[in-house]
Amino acid sequence: MTSVPNVLITGTSGFIGGSLLADLLSRADGPIKNARIFAAARSDEQVKSVSKLGINVLQVDLTDEKSVLDAVLKNEVDIIVHTAGAILPQMATNMIKALGERRRVSGIETHYIHTSVATMFSEEGGWPYGQVKDSDGSIVEKEKKLGESNPVRKPETNVIVAELGKAQGVTTYNVPVPTVYGRGTGEWRKLSVNIPAVTRASMKLKTVYKFEKDGHPPAIHISDLTALYGAILEKILLKETIPSNENGYYFAVAHKSPWWEVMERLAQSMHARGLVSEPTAKVWPSWEVAAEHTGFPLIFIRAIGTSNGDLVPVNGPKIGWQPKWDEKMYLDSIDDEVQAVLDLDTVKMTLWDSL
């Protein structure tokens, strides 16, 4: 890396990327404080908003290979933390190729931290292997086999990240993100996806709905998630050897989210505010109706609403990451989740904007 490493954060106008950027810029000391942070944004308005933080903001089209290459080489980017459109392979491909060229031109090691979807490691997401530890070095091979036959898992971006990173000489890390909650701290979007989507639908329908089958997917508070990214980035900047490439999964899992219990607490909170007609949740009449009103793609609605997934984080704790939020704190915060939607829901968000 250069004497002052250059780190590019994508998705900084989004919930996760914006909160991560705020977290990194708040560091008072340590290797992250000494790094030069760049932010990627899409629109003029987003660039203007993020620029208020006093950092370099790059307006770059991540789907355009030449645009990404020019941005990386011109700004001598050594590390990319990708939190925007992370299930779309073209963006990841463009950034890894650009980092590969940066390494070839400069001789400097380059690193790519990818954000993926934890739901893909549940039975409903097409994962048939049961419990999975992020330290299992066979994850990529298993995903590669599954991607050949399961339409929900196509295209298999995780496989592309691992294989292309190896081919380009770029060290890669993969952070599968589950249900995220809490108020964001970024300049643009401060709301998560799942609970706000259900809250909006409930306000419109005057009823809180749950799925016919309960689910207990993994979950994490936004502050614990940004702390995990920060822990990985800090180790990279310190040039310490940590799990990477096919061994570089870091499950961002703090606890479970008992969906039926969450929906009941949501109904109680919204009823107390006069937002819904009853203090209890009813069952969605169909998957199609649920997808229509929540805005989630129908192909993923079962995995989003009823998944479980037994993901065991090993690599995160191995590098010193320990989440602070637990299930009880999460359930006790549902009332604030409702209030956050009422306070902050000024920007239309879709599932695809957040991934």
TrEMBL record:
<feature type="domain" description="NAD-dependent epimerase/dehydratase">
    <location>
        <begin position="7"/>
        <end position="235"/>
    </location>
</feature>
<protein>
    <recommendedName>
        <fullName>NAD-dependent epimerase/dehydratase domain-containing protein</fullName>
    </recommendedName>
</protein>
<dbReference type="InterPro" id="IPR001509">
    <property type="entry name" value="Epimerase_deHydtase"/>
</dbReference>
<dbReference type="InterPro" id="IPR036291">
    <property type="entry name" value="NAD(P)-bd_dom_sf"/>
</dbReference>
<dbReference type="InterPro" id="IPR051783">
    <property type="entry name" value="NAD(P)-dependent_oxidoreduct"/>
</dbReference>
<dbReference type="Pfam" id="PF01370">
    <property type="entry name" value="Epimerase"/>
</dbReference>
<dbReference type="GO" id="GO:0004029">
    <property type="term" value="F:aldehyde dehydrogenase (NAD+) activity"/>
</dbReference>
<dbReference type="GO" id="GO:0005737">
    <property type="term" value="C:cytoplasm"/>
</dbReference>
